[in-house]
Amino acid sequence: MPNVKLYTAKLSPPGRAVELTGKALGLEFDISPINLIAGDHLKEEFRKLNPQHTIPLIDDDGTIVYDSHAIIVYLATKYAKDDALYPADVVTRSKVNAALHFDSGVLFARLRFYLEPILYYGATETPQEKIDNLYRAYELLNDTLVDDYIVGNRLTLADLSCVASIASMHAIFPIDAGKYPKLAAWVERLAKLPYYKATNQDGAEELAQLYRAKLEENRAKAKQS
Ligand SMILES: N[C@@H](CCC(=O)N[C@@H](CS)C(=O)NCC(=O)O)C(=O)O
């Protein structure tokens, strides 16, 4: 089986969700690094693969799939040895799907709308509402966590997707375990995965460092002008 080609960046939470899924499935990727700050994703060659110019994207022997949630479902459906990560039972699967949409529409969306103005458009301040929305997202996930994992008591795609966004949020706005105890315990549980640090934690910290450096740079530029 040829390795799946993955266009991604360590900084990218959805990119890390795909890498985490690869590790959980025992899949190797041929990684094609995309530098978002340098605009690699806006080049014609990449736009031909994904007109929406987002990473991650996979090329599986000519089959192109983009959007991390679509990718991880594709990989688990095509390559998993069993249905543990993406349970076949229709009710359980609907719960996993709900969490994937929650990541897409709430967790990653709120993080993205917070970070993008600073990373790409020179913003020096953030409206308080955007920060409040990140904390509300913590609360929503904390309240969702009634078991050890997002769906029941075993790891599924739901966890791998959400933890990529949450780790990035946590590296910028640390999760207060007193306020969000179930969320903090869930992050600690996932952090025990043998591949977690290299595949998720390091990239989340790198993203937080870039965010801090950009904020400082934007503020210095604004002072000069
Ligand atoms: N829903 C998409 C979001 C992907 C996304 O927005 N990726 C960001 C990097 S973290 C990106 O490629 N941004 C560049 C752009 O939108 O032009 C997914 O889950 O893959």
UniProtKB/TrEMBL annotation:
Entry-linked Pfam families: GST_C, GST_N_3
Domain called GST N-terminal: residue spans: 2-83
Native organism: Anopheles farauti
Catalytic class of the enzyme: transferase
Name of the protein in its database record: glutathione transferase
Keyword Kinase: no
Catalysed conversion reaction: RX + glutathione = an S-substituted glutathione + a halide anion + H(+)
Subunit structure and binding partners: Homodimer.
Molecular function, one GO term: glutathione transferase activity
Enzyme Commission designation: 2.5.1.18
Segments passing through the bilayer: none
Family assignment from sequence similarity: Belongs to the GST superfamily. Theta family.
BP terms from Gene Ontology: glutathione metabolic process
Alphabetized PROSITE patterns for the sequence: GST_CTER, GST_NTER
UniProt domain GST C-terminal: residue ranges: 89-224
Entry keywords, A to Z: Transferase
Entry-linked InterPro entries: Glutathione-S-Trfase_C-like, Glutathione-S-Trfase_C_sf, Glutathione_S-Trfase, Glutathione_S-Trfase_N, GST_C, Thioredoxin-like_sf
CDD domains: GST_C_Delta_Epsilon, GST_N_Delta_Epsilon
